[in-house]
Amino acid sequence: MRRARLPALSSPSDHKPGFLREQSRVLGRQVSARVVGNPLVARLITRYFHRLYYGMRARTWLDTHWLGTPLLKCPLDLWIYQELLHEIRPHLIVETGTRYGGSAAYLASLCDLLDHGRVISIDIDEAEGRPQHPRIRYLHGSSTAPECIDAVKQEVSEGDRVLVILDSDHRRDHVLAELRAYADLVSPGSYLVVEDTNVNGHPVDPFFGPGPFEAMRDFLAEDARFEVDRAREKFYLTFNPSGYLRRVG
Ligand SMILES: C[S@@+](CC[C@H](N)C(=O)[O-])C[C@H]1O[C@@H](n2cnc3c(N)ncnc32)[C@H](O)[C@@H]1O
Is the peptide bond before 188 cis (omega within 30 degrees of 0)? Predict the structure, then answer.
């Protein structure tokens, strides 16, 4: 990293009122830029901020809404979704795990802005009051039930670009079954997003047990068509570390 220089003191006339205060401010900015620019320090800050943000759930991710409907995501990941949708312009977005419908509504709003795309959102539970939107179809059932998978496949036409988001039951075996069931649907260049890879100590919720992260690892060991796209973790905090899987093959 190039070092920024402090302006040299050329003469006693530089010692004007406020000069030292300004100098210490400049020095403070340089020191903190250097400290947080260190990859190890950046990793530590990210990890502790992640724990703070995730741990204070009642004021953070349990109190996040899209146009009034709760959604259980980190806003920095929502911005990544916005960028993905703009880049890929999927014809169909498949979401497993609807809960209140906030994430489906968010994705549908982006489709409205792009004037392109539809959302199919699957949940094992039916809930009243989910947002109704012409671009959303809610499917009731388990995401790994053959009839659900078939219903989703019937929504896909030849040449469609498809993006899949897995956000239902977060236990490893279920997520791995979803990965295997939906991977073929993802079009080359598009993404299979494994949500909440952060649990089971990556770096939060250390006692969760094997979850999405472990499923992602097992899946990548058996399917070479996908690779982790770390660039989607550029905002440091993401609930989906190593969870943005890009189809490359
Ligand atoms: C984390 S929430 C979804 C959050 C939502 N995507 C959001 O961001 O606001 C998980 C949802 O998955 C559903 N779920 C659990 N097991 C499921 C399964 N086997 N198939 C489909 N949905 C399931 C739950 O009923 C719950 O509503």
Answer: no
Is residue 186 helix, strand or coil?
Answer: coil
Between residues 10 and 31, which one has the greater pLDDT? 31
247 pocket-lining for ligand 1 (C-beta < 6 Å) = no
Is residue 122 in contact with ligand 1, taking CB distance under 6 Å? yes
Distance CA 117, CA 94 (A): 11
C-beta of 167 in contact with ligand 1 (< 6 A): yes
Specify the pairing of strand 118-123 against strand 92-96. Answer: parallel
pLDDT in tens, 86-101: 999 999 999 999 999 9
User: Is there an atom of ligand 1 within 6 Å of 73 CB?
Assistant: yes
What is the structure's pLDDT at 139?
98
At 2 the pLDDT is 52
Distances, alpha carbon 46 to alpha carbons 39, 96, 199, 202, 203, in Å: 10, 28, 15, 12, 10
Instruction: pLDDT band for 121, please (50, 70, 90 cuts).
Output: very high
d(CA 122, CA 7): 60
> What's the CA dihedral at 205, 207, 211, 213 to 10 degrees?
60
Q: What would the mean pLDDT of 146-154 be, rounded to a whole number?
A: 98
In three-state secondary structure terms, 12 is helix
Domains present along the chain, CATH in parentheses? 15-55 (no CATH), 63-247 (3.40.50.150)
